[in-house]
Amino acid sequence: MMDINDLINQVSSWLKGTGPNSDIVISSRIRLARNVSKTPFPHWAKKNDAEQVVVAAKAAFERTRELKDAAFLRMDDLDNIDKQFLVERHLMSNEHAARPSQKALSITSLEDVAIMVNEEDHLRIQVMESGFDLDKTWEVINSIDDQISGFLPYAFSREWGYLTACPTNTGTAMRGSVMLHLPALVMTRQINRVLEAIAKLSFTTRGLYGEGTQASGNFFQISNQVSMGQREEEMLGNIKGVIRQIIEQEEKARELLFSEHREMLEDRIWRSYGTLKNAHIITSGETVELLSMLRLGADVGLVKNIERGLINELFILTQPAHLQKLENKKLSANERDVKRAQIIRERLTQQS
User: Fold this and answer.
1) 13 neighbors 169 (Cβ within 8 angstroms)
2) What sign has the CA pseudo-torsion 133, 135, 140, 142?
3) Any idea what DSSP says for residue 13?
4) Which of 81, 125, 143, 342 is deepest in the core (most CB within 10 A)?
5) At 320, phi and psi to the nearest 5?
């Protein structure tokens, strides 16, 4: 069975830079919140109740087709670096890492499916796909959800739908989200207008690491806020419609930059590439901003020798816990900045 240390040597399937509109859309994700019937929700559960959920979930996952090869990790068994490593890979939340008692995480070998056990709800089922592909994402998660429900009876009300710890999730208990790279909208100062418009349509915007994080590196996670009153397919249709409009706005902004500010754009992209390829010390924040410009350069065809998938991987591989997993020891902030620069130089040199 897969071990957590195996993950450091592979690229998550959702980071490969493939799929529809992958020049703008990093990934598509759907999350379902589910609770076991007649069992106290995690925040109210006693230790024994929570442990029973972990045991029952593990048994159900072992009988679920898509989870046959999945690792089942107990949070109590992981050190702080391992837990932060999983957060950096978008496989679980900070909250799940912060209070590890009677909690678990199931991860498939491709990292396209991750299920948190006893986070805010008993189960948080997540499926991710590369590019703009919510249809495939829904197909996979719907199959997994159906199978698990055959082994674990869900808390469900005919009137309210799936019952959840937070009332805002009640109903379908579904969140569809898309990670977008929108540098041109930021550079042309149109991003606030776009985000304000989608907020009026009951969509929320978060940063690279989800709830509680700010947008950095021109990355924006956009997801639905309302999970009640519509079927899942209708909700996904609304999300897809909004995302298509944002993609169109970003494409127009890129065309504007090329036609009216080409020299400025090329200068920023090549300066970013030069810094990344030659720096010997670089911070996490600077790395994200420079990689964003390099990715734009690759996506619009200015930088021809760097694959999109490599740039996506570097966004994750250069995070603090990943650097320490690679070195197999704790690193100071300065040591991480040195190691980060070394990895970027080596990876970019290999492809150029």
Assistant:
1) no
2) positive
3) G
4) 125
5) -55, -50
